[in-house]
Specification:
Layout (H helix, E strand, L loop, with lengths): L4 H13 L8 E2 L4 H16 L19 H4 L3 H11 L4 H28 L1 H12 L2 H10 L2 H22 L3 H17 L1 H22 L3 H19 L1 H9 L23 H4 L14 H15 L3 H25 L22 H11 L7 H18 L8 E2 L3 H5 L28 E3 L4 E8 L3 E8 L3 E8 L4 E5 L2 E2 L10 E6 L2 E9 L3 H33 L1
Antiparallel strand pairs: 1-2, 3-6, 4-5, 5-10, 6-9, 7-8, 7-10
């Protein structure tokens, strides 16, 4: 029982800090309700056998929107699994949010314990649960991807450390799977966290071993490539096909308005408005500073053990703080920073690293006491921030029938759409000329089928925004499509007569080959696991 006591205490703290999620209904946040709508759309697309989901036909007033071609799908895969057990749309989203906090606490505890012992892990996990930006994600921003990323950060570090200490195929594949899921969970967070993770891998090897070259090629490279391959079906098309959407032509925000000055980390006001609080927390900053300073003042045995990790954390935080500061503005004009929409995105990994730095408070007796006082005070005084601005109670059908695009500026709209839809159409298929009738119309997110009888050559308008992948066929022959009108809808000509028309949403070449990379990566992962299992069985029977 004593062994599980820290976990039980952590779960109790999580329960207090996520209490509003256990109330009936939901509450207002920047993105929370959009997550419910997206989950509904993910479920709809999977029911239509569209896999991987890319085109949402119900959104955008029914004219379609390439939502999951660019928006991270990971949390909504999890939500779809929950839906199998008849958990409601809103409740599924709330389960993911609460689950992300639980997993954050558990894996930060395991990571801290692996690095510096039980007390270190316990302290780091408590700091992590009550990190101000964690509460911003839960109750102001409502970003399900960011919230889940906060769980994947310590999970990836912990599994990587276990892999470094005892490399085997199973641990390698686990690391690859978590890395791939991070990419699918929040592509920007994956971009930001990737160099931090790579640095951690090398620093960890230097802390325990000397042959870093061997680890790089033999252990790290296959793990990283497998993770990239597993997620290739999503991020490669998103990069190469970004040219088709408005996001390639506009900025979501003026970067200069979203930099963080140093006082903001302590004095940024708590607000439920459009701009989130940038607070990192007095106790979190003080705890990290004391912990890192304690490494330099520790005995030789502790200094040698912890110095590489302490320097890694210090430099990582320093670089992130600099990149979020206005003085780094010139760097934001070129990739990879130009791919990131807001400088305050760096608050997420900074919050993780600050909590991780608190493990070093366990080195000295006095810092143990100070750390305990700091985290206890933070838990008590931060509880007031663990509440939403306003509770709402809307039925699932409200979200399942929502016509919005779920993006702030409709930035995923194809560039050829000049006049965006404002209301739902009366019928999915329309004819430009009279003397024609449409029969047996059947459509979903991946296909449109109908029969048309026309007495004259006619132009058919399908009330679906064209997006690469849509193809239409007449008597087995592909029909040339016209989407040059200001509305960007699909139009094509048909001769007079009785015709069966079939439209399909298929993978483009870049999507197809990306799918193949992911399938081959999955096959490789399964094959390696089977091979590992066979080796273990042979070893046991030998």
């Amino acid at each position: 029982m004593k062994r599980f006591l820290p976990i039980l205490i952590l779960l109790a703290v999580v329960l207090f800090y996520t209490k509003p999620y256990f109330r009936t209904g939901f509450f207002t946040t920047h993105d929370g309700e959009w997550a419910v709508i997206r989950l509904s759309e993910m479920q709809r697309e999977l029911k239509d056998s569209q896999f991987p989901p890319r085109f949402a036909d119900y959104l955008n007033h029914g004219f379609g929107y390439p939502l999951f071609s660019y928006t991270y799908p990971g949390p909504f895969y999890l939500g779809t699994i929950l839906r199998i057990f008849r958990i409601g749309l809103v409740d599924s989203v709330k389960v993911i949010f609460v689950g992300s906090v639980v997993m954050s606490a558990i894996f930060m505890f395991l990571l801290g314990r692996e690095l510096a012992g039980d007390f270190a892990g316990f302290l780091a996990a408590l700091f992590y649960i009550v990190a101000p930006f964690r509460l911003v994600d839960l109750y102001i921003r409502g970003s399900i991807g960011e919230s889940l990323s906060l769980a994947l950060f310590p999970m990836l570090f912990y599994l990587s450390l276990k892999y470094i200490l005892n490399p085997n195929i199973t641990r390698m594949i686990l690391c690859s799977l978590v890395f791939a899921f991070l990419i699918l969970t929040h592509n920007i967070m994956a971009l930001v966290f990737f160099p931090i993770w790579i640095a951690f891998l090398f620093v960890s090897v230097l802390s325990y071993f000397e042959d870093i070259k061997l680890y790089s090629w033999r252990y790290f490279l296959p793990m990283i490539l497998l993770g990239i391959g597993l997620s290739a079906y999503f991020f490669i098309p998103a990069i190469f096909e970004k040219q088709y959407i408005v996001l390639s032509q506009i900025k979501l925000a003026n970067i200069s308005e979203h930099f963080i000055s140093l006082p903001d980390y302590l004095l940024s006001p708590w607000s439920y408005g459009p701009k989130p609080s940038y607070q990192l927390g007095w106790a979190h900053i003080l705890g990290a500073l004391l912990g890192l300073a304690g490494v330099f003042m520790a005995k030789e045995i502790y200094r040698k053990k912890y110095l590489p990790i302490a320097l890694f954390i210090s430099f990582s935080i320093g670089i992130l703080v600099f990149l979020a500061h206005p003085t780094s503005s010139d760097f934001w004009n070129a990739p990879p920073l130009s791919w990131i929409d807001f400088p305050w995105r760096f608050l997420t990994p900074i919050s993780f690293l600050l909590a991780l730095a608190s493990i070093f408070l366990s080195i000295h007796r006095i810092t143990r006491i100070i750390g305990g006082i700091l985290v206890a005070a933070t838990i008590i005084f931060s509880l007031n921030f663990a509440r939403p601005a306003e509770y709402i109670n809307k039925p699932d059908v409200y979200y399942a029938t929502n016509d919005a695009t779920t993006t702030s500026m409709d930035e995923l709209m194809p560039v050829w759409v000049a006049n965006k839809p404002t209301q739902r159409y009366k019928t999915k298929v329309e004819l430009e000329h009279a003397n024609a009738t449409v029969y047996n119309l059947d459509y979903n997110s991946r296909s449109i089928k109908f029969r048309v009888v026309t007495k004259v050559p006619n132009i058919i308008k399908v009330n679906t925004v064209y997006f690469p992948g849509w193809q239409f066929f007449l008597k087995g022959e592909q029909i040339p499509l016209n989407f040059g009108s200001p509305d960007g809808l699909i139009r094509f000509e048909v001769p007079e007569g009785n015709h069966f028309i079939e439209g399909k949403f298929v993978e483009t070449k870049v999507r197809f080959w990306s799918d193949m990379v992911s399938l081959l990566s999955l096959a490789a992962a399964v094959g390696l696991l089977v091979y590992s299992l066979i080796l273990r069985l042979k070893t046991r029977t030998a």
